[in-house]
Amino acid sequence: MRKLCLIFVLLALSLHLHATGPNTTIVQDVVYRADGSAAHGSLVISWPGFTTAAGYAVAAGQMNLAIGSGGAISLALIPNEGAAPAGTFYRVLIKLDDQTQSTEFWVVPAASPTTVAAIRSTVMPAAVAAQFASRQYVDAAIAAAQSGNLKVINGIRFAGNSFSGGSTIQAAITDAGSTGAVIIPPNYAGADAFTNPNGIQI
After folding, report:
1. CA atoms within 13 A on the CB side of 166
2. Over 70: is that where the pLDDT of 7 sits?
3. How many CB atoms lie within 10 A of CB 194?
4. I need a labelling partner for 21 at 20 to 30 A (CA). Which of 83, 104, 149, 172 fits?
5. What are the sequence ranges of the domains in the chain?
6. What is the Cα–Cα distance from 65 to 75, expressed in whole angstroms?
7. Nearest one of 63, 65, 67 to 32, comparing CA atoms
8. Which of 53-62, 131-140, 156-165 has the highest mean pLDDT?
9. Looking at residue 174, what is its pLDDT?
């Protein structure tokens, strides 16, 4: 009987903890412009669905927050540090009243309160980083491609202007599959036909 009562107590405690929901972390800080004046505008915070380190399921969503007087911000967020899937970030679009915008990625710990400076990610999410390439990187890759055969650099296939060994634009597209991309240099003089069944970026 005593064991049965203990089981009921533990079950009730577990249900109560989940009924109250996950703990949130308070993010408090003051946002400034580079000239030292207080920022004015808003934050647009979005996130994918994730499961917290404590096992709570969080649905994907978005919220808007006005930057307060004197650049002050204060909001509560569910911690995403240690969440699944790995690499879950809050994406924060800062929209200032002078029309400038910037994007940050936040990793929120369980310890509360915290500051914006403490939760800004120093590592850009891989899915976002993959969308960016420096001008120097692209110029060097195109120069390498123009020198001859098909080049494969970090998932981007560069079709050169001198195809040997059967390399063609079609071969580049086929090699790129469904997740790569093909860059054709502007001085490419070939006239070979090709199909693009996977709809990759060219």
Report:
1. 3
2. no
3. 15
4. 104
5. 22-123, 135-183
6. 8
7. 67
8. 53-62
9. 76
Strand partners, 66: 42
| Token digits of residue 124 | 């850009």
Q: Is pLDDT larger for residue 45 or for residue 142? A: 45
Cβ atoms within 10 A of the Cβ of 170, count? 16
Matching residue, tokens 């809050």 = 90
Q: What is the pLDDT of residue 57?
A: 94
pLDDT for residue 118: 92
CATH fold for the domain made of 22-123: Immunoglobulin-like (2.60.40)
Residue 57 is classified by DSSP as: E
Residues 4/7/12/15 CA torsion (nearest 10 deg)? -140
Nearest Cα neighbor of 184 from 196, 127, 198, 126 is: 196
- State pLDDT tens for residues 84-99: 998 899 999 999 998 8
For 177, residues 6+ apart whose C-beta sits below 8 A from its C-beta are: 198, 200
Q: What are phi and psi of 4, to 5 degrees?
A: -65, -40
Structure tokens at 46: 């979005």
Which tens digit of pLDDT belongs to each residue from 115-142?
Answer: 999 999 866 666 565 555 556 666 666 6
Q: Which two tokens mark 169?
A: 């634009």
Helix or strand run (H / E) with residue 16: helix 2-20
